[in-house]
Amino acid sequence: ILLLASLLTTFIWYTLENKEKINKVLEQYSKAWKKQEEPYQKFRSQLSAKCHGLEKATITQANTPVGTKLVYDGEKKRTLQVNLEIFSTFFKGHPFPNKTWHTCAVVGNGGILANSSCGKMIDSAEFVIRCNLPPLSNGYEKHVGINTDLVTANPSILMEKFGALMGRRRKFVESLRSYGDSLLLLPAFSFGHNTPVSLRAFYTLEDFESPVRPIFFNPGYLHNLALFWRSQGLRTIRLSTGIIMTSLALELCDNVQLYGFWPFDFHPYSFQTLTNHYYDDRKTKTKFHAMPDEFNHLLRLHSQGVLKLHLGHCK
Ligand code: CDP
User: Fold this and answer.
1) How far is it, in rounded angstroms, from Cα 192 to Cα 17?
2) Residues whose beta carbon lies within 6 Å of some atom of ligand 1
3) Which SS3 state, helix, strand or coil, does residue 246 take?
4) Alpha-carbon gap, residue 120 to 142, rounded angstroms
5) Which residue puts its alpha carbon closest to atom 17 of ligand 1?
6) Within 13 Å of residue 243, how many CA atoms lie on the same side as its CB?
7) Tell me, what's the ipTM?
C-alpha cells in the first residue's frame, strides 16, 4: 500500500509539474494570432543577409561548379572537391523558381499532430514541407494531409529502413510514392558517412525513373544558419530538421505556418500523454538537439507575428 501511495504521489506531482510547465508555455501562446508585417520583414531580411537561403540553401549546378571545395558542416575538417561525377548529381535549374510562395506549411513530426484533424489546413498551403520521410497514409491523411512539395531525408533513415540502399532498392522507391514529384532534400555533405548513401539515393531514383527530385543541402548554408541561430541565443550542437526547414520557409514564403512542433510529452490542452512522433515513439537525440529551446524561439516568433505555430486541434 505504501509503495502504491508513493507511486501515486510521484505520478500526481509529475503531472502537476508538467501542467505548470505547459501553462507557462501557453501564457506566451496567443491564439488570436495576426501576422505582423514589420517584425516579419525584419526577421526575414536578417536571415537572408546571413544565409541567402533563396540562392544558397541547396546545391545546384549553377551555384556549385566543378572544382568547388565543399566543407562539411558537421565535420569542419572534412572537405570534398567537386569532380564531374559528383557535379552530374547536382540539381539542374533552380529548385525554388524566382518567386515567393503565398503560404507555406512546415510540418514537424510531433505527436501533437495525431488526431489533430489538421490535414485539410496543411494541404491548403501553396507549398508543403515535411521532415524525414514521414508516413502520410494508413489513416494519417486526415491529420497531416497528403500534399508534399519538399521532404527531407536523414541518411540514418536510409541506413536503418532501407539497408543503406546496398541491396534491393525497390522498397525505397515505392515508399516515396506518397510524395509525388516533390523535392527530396538530403544532407549529403554534413558528415562524411552521409555522402555515399545520399549518392546511392540519387542513383536509385534515377535508375527507377522516380518522379521524386533529389537535391542536396548546401553545407555552407547549414553552417551559416547555425551561426545565425547562435547569434539569436540558441545553444545547440545541431539544429533540428524542423528549425532548418522553418528558417528556409521564412525566406521562401510570405506566410509561414507550423504544424507538429511540440517537443513535450503532454498535450497542451487535453494533458494526455503524447508519443514523440505522430507515427511512433522514437525519442529525439537530446545529445545533439535542443528542441525545447528551439521551441521557445519559435514561440517568440509566433508571439511577434512572424510565423504561426498551430497547437492543438484544427477546425
Ligand atoms: O531529425 P529530427 O530528430 O530533427 O526530426 P524528427 O523527429 O523527424 O521531427 C521533425 C521535426 O519536428 C524536428 O526536427 C522538430 O523540429 C519537430 N518536432 C517537434 O517539434 N516535436 C516533436 N515531439 C517531434 C519533432
Assistant:
1) 42
2) 108-111, 131-132, 154, 240-243, 260-263, 276-277, 284, 289, 291
3) helix
4) 7
5) 108
6) 27
7) 0.98
Give me the active site residues, please.
289
CA distances from 251 to 172, 256, 259 (A): 31, 10, 18
CB 106 within 8 A of CB 245: yes
d(CA 128, CA 130): 7
Q: How far is the CA of 108 from the centre of ligand 1 (A)?
A: 5
- Burial bucket for residue 195 (CB in 10 Å: 0-12, 13-18, 19+): buried
How are beta strands 69-71 and 79-81 bridged, if at all? antiparallel
Atom 9 (ligand 1): residue with closest C-alpha?
Answer: 109
Model confidence at 24, in pLDDT bands (50, 70, 90)? confident
Give pLDDT, residue 13.
64
Q: What angle do CA 251, 199, 104 make, to 5 degrees?
A: 20
